[in-house]
């Protein structure tokens, strides 16, 4: 029987010695099983006992591999997802971080679950990303993708900014606030949740707009259809430079008078989980929800 995955990539820049050990264990275990294994080339200096020709850039791994195993926290998954979503590759995570909403394999016994996944026993879901573009005088000045959220904010100094929000080019509302979080369902349990946004089931095609400390009590989170195109027109009277932050990892500078366009990316992240995965079980354990009463 043909294996569902032939070429496997191991991704993620480790923060500590334990994570490095997980990379080594994964590489040795998968190689022993007869898989063709390649590793994120950011690890070349650390994993010196692995042959140099087994390292590749994230883009090359996206082109070559059928499955990417991301070792680390959700931050590693977010960074990998923005690149890997452009390619036909499935992604699974081994949690070596703090929260682990996106990385569900336990590093202490990954073999059991991963063995089943490699034999085709897994659940697959598609998570959509957002594209964020900064337009100035009708030209795109910068752009990037976000799996969790794109956030308009004042940059380094916290102060009120003014902007107008258009949805499919129809004026929706204007706002004076510390910024706006525009989130995917995946990001609804991240920064958006801290800002008072709703938890949105990952299968929903919806985008959430969550105001950050708005200067009015009537301002509430808004959930719109995922196909809507959102435009933020930044007031020409704002002081200094603002930013659009993508997943808290990439910053796009925004000047007064710029327009920020945010829309659903044509690319999706093919996230896979073990067969016994439950989104609500993850929420219970990560958010401290109560267990069953009876």
Automatic annotation (TrEMBL):
Keywords: ATP-binding, Cytoplasm, Kinase, NAD, NADP, Nucleotide-binding, Transferase. It is found in: Cytoplasm. One of its GO terms (cellular component) is cytoplasm. The active site is at residue 74. Its EC number is 2.7.1.23. Its main location: cytoplasm. GO terms for biological process: NAD+ metabolic process; NADP+ biosynthetic process. NAD(+) binds at residues 74-75, 148-149, 159, 176, 178, 189-194, 249. It catalyses: NAD(+) + ATP = ADP + NADP(+) + H(+). Its cofactor is a divalent metal cation. Gene3D superfamilies: Probable inorganic polyphosphate/atp-NAD kinase, domain 1 (3.40.50.10330), Probable inorganic polyphosphate/atp-NAD kinase, domain 2 (2.60.200.30). GO terms for molecular function: ATP binding; metal ion binding; NAD binding; NAD+ kinase activity. InterPro entries: ATP-NAD_kinase_N, ATP-NAD_kinase_PpnK-typ_C, NAD/diacylglycerol_kinase_sf, NADK. HAMAP family: NAD_kinase. Belongs to the NAD kinase family. Involved in the regulation of the intracellular balance of NAD and NADP, and is a key enzyme in the biosynthesis of NADP. Catalyzes specifically the phosphorylation on 2'-hydroxyl of the adenosine moiety of NAD to yield NADP. PANTHER family: NAD KINASE. This is NAD kinase. The gene is nadK.
């Amino acid at each position: 029987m043909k294996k569902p995955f032939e070429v496997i990539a191991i991704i993620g820049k480790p923060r500590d010695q334990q994570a490095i050990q997980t990379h080594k264990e994964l590489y040795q275990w998968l190689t022993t099983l007869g898989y063709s294994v390649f590793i994120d080339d950011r690890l070349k200096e650390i994993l010196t006992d692995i042959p140099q020709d087994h390292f590749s850039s994230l883009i090359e791994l996206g082109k070559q591999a059928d499955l990417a195993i991301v070792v680390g926290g959700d931050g590693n998954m977010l960074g990998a997802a923005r690149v890997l979503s452009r390619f036909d590759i499935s992604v699974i995570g081994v949690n070596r971080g703090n929260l682990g909403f996106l990385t569900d394999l336990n590093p202490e016994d990954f073999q059991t679950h991963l063995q089943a996944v490699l034999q085709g026993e897994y659940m697959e879901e598609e998570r959509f990303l957002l594209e964020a573009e900064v337009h100035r005088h009708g030209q795109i000045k910068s752009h990037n993708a976000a799996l969790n959220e794109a956030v308009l904010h004042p940059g380094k100094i916290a102060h009120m900014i003014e902007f107008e929000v258009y949805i499919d080019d129809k004026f929706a509302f204007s706002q004076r606030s510390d910024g706006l979080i525009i989130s995917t369902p995946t990001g609804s349990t991240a920064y958006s949740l801290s800002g008072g946004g709703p938890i949105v089931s990952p299968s929903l095609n919806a985008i959430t707009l969550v105001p950050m400390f708005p200067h009015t009590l009537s301002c509430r989170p808004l959930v719109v259809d995922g196909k809507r195109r959102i435009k933020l027109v930044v007031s020409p009277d704002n002081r200094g430079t603002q930013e659009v932050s993508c997943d808290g990892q990439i910053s796009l500078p925004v000047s007064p008078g710029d327009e920020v366009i945010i829309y659903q990316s044509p690319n999706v992240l093919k996230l896979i989980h073990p067969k016994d995965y439950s989104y609500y079980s993850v929420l219970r354990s990560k958010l401290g929800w109560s267990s069953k009463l009876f």
